[in-house]
């Protein structure tokens, strides 16, 4: 087959064009910031991002690249179909809201009544030292609407943290990722669980005994959180929203860790006291 001339290449249907372009004949972007990738490039990015994210789970850029590289050809399309089959999901796709510091107006959210979704979200951001603007833009998903679906998942991730109370530390992030994997089936959320190897033995045991089972049960039984129009739920009571979605609040991870730290400090102080008494008495 003779090589395609540029004019004939761009005359091909989009699906066929994706299969035939190379780094020397890259098609134009489908939306601002879009970077078309060949299948080989997508595979290399998936492997490299996965290895880098395991080494450093705080590299959000690598986690974002891994998510986009593994979302096609099925998973982000499935998530888009889930939104299209839901009345609220269809409105979100039509309106395409974005979650940023400007759209959320955090000062106003901080003034909302206790236990509202907006107040919990703002308090969680303040406690964890993050902002709505820390999410990377989608670049490697070809279809513009599917790119928005991935962006929406990415920007609403912190709301899942807020209504569950799980912190950004690796242990809490893994619990949220496990919940999202059961709820969305996005491969990146499942692949992120490889970072379990970085947990301390007590944390790993706690994940398998407490937070892993919680994530699997609630992720499967809950409504698909991609269909929550969070901007319309800011004044909703958190308990009411969790009940509506079918999500049980997990045990407070920060409180569990605090109790264990206090217990270890008390044991250490008691041990040192016994050693001081022993040295002074010669026993």
Automatic annotation (TrEMBL):
The protein's assembly and partners: Component of a multi-subunit COQ enzyme complex, composed of at least COQ3, COQ4, COQ5, COQ6, COQ7 and COQ9.
Pathway it works in: Cofactor biosynthesis; ubiquinone biosynthesis
Keywords: Lyase, Membrane, Metal-binding, Mitochondrion, Mitochondrion inner membrane, Ubiquinone, Ubiquinone biosynthesis, Zinc
Reaction(s) catalysed (UniProt annotation): a 4-hydroxy-3-methoxy-5-(all-trans-polyprenyl)benzoate + H(+) = a 2-methoxy-6-(all-trans-polyprenyl)phenol + CO2
Annotated Gene Ontology cellular component terms: extrinsic component of mitochondrial inner membrane
Signal peptide: none
Function: Lyase that catalyzes the C1-decarboxylation of 4-hydroxy-3-methoxy-5-(all-trans-polyprenyl)benzoic acid into 2-methoxy-6-(all-trans-polyprenyl)phenol during ubiquinone biosynthesis.
Pfam families: Coq4
GO MF annotation terms: 4-hydroxy-3-methoxy-5-polyprenylbenzoate decarboxylase activity; zinc ion binding
InterPro entries the UniProt entry points to: Coq4 (IPR007715), Coq4_euk (IPR027540)
Chief site of localization: mitochondrion
Coiled coil (residue ranges): none
Designated gene of the protein: COQ4
Membrane topology term: Peripheral membrane protein
Domain of life assignment: Eukaryota
Similarity comment text for this entry: Belongs to the COQ4 family.
Keyword Cell membrane listed: no
UniProt-recorded name of the protein: 4-hydroxy-3-methoxy-5-polyprenylbenzoate decarboxylase
Binding site for Zn(2+): 157-158, 161, 173
Classification of source organism: Eukaryota, Fungi, Dikarya, Ascomycota, Pezizomycotina
Cofactor(s) listed in the protein's UniProt record: Zn(2+)
Localization per record: Mitochondrion inner membrane
């Amino acid at each position: 087959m003779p090589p395609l001339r540029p004019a004939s290449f761009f005359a091909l249907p989009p699906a066929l064009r994706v299969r035939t372009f190379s780094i020397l004949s890259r098609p134009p972007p489908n939306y601002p910031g879009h970077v078309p990738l060949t299948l080989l490039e997508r595979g290399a990015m998936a492997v490299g991002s996965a290895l880098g994210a395991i080494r450093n789970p705080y590299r959000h850029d690598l986690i974002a690249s891994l998510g986009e590289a593994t979302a096609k050809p099925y998973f982000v399309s499935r998530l888009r179909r889930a939104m299209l089959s839901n009345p609220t999901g269809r409105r979100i796709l039509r309106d395409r809201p974005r979650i940023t510091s400007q759209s959320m107006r955090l000062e106003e959210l901080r003034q909302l009544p206790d236990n509202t979704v907006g107040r919990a979200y703002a308090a969680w951001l303040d406690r964890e030292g993050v902002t709505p603007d820390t999410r990377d833009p989608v670049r490697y998903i070809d279809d513009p609407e599917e790119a928005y679906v991935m962006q929406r998942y990415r920007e609403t991730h912190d709301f899942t943290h807020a209504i569950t109370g799980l912190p950004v530390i690796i242990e809490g992030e893994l619990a949220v990722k496990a919940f999202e994997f059961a709820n969305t089936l996005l491969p990146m959320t499942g692949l992120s669980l490889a970072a379990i190897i970085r947990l301390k033995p007590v944390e790993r045991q706690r994940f398998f005994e407490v937070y892993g089972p919680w994530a699997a049960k609630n992720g499967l039984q809950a409504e698909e959180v991609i269909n929550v129009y969070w901007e319309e739920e800011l004044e909703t009571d958190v308990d009411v929203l969790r009940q509506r979605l079918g999500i049980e609040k997990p045990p407070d991870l920060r409180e569990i860790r605090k109790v264990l730290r206090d217990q270890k400090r008390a044991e250490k102080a008691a041990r040192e006291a016994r050693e001081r008494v022993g040295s002074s008495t010669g026993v």
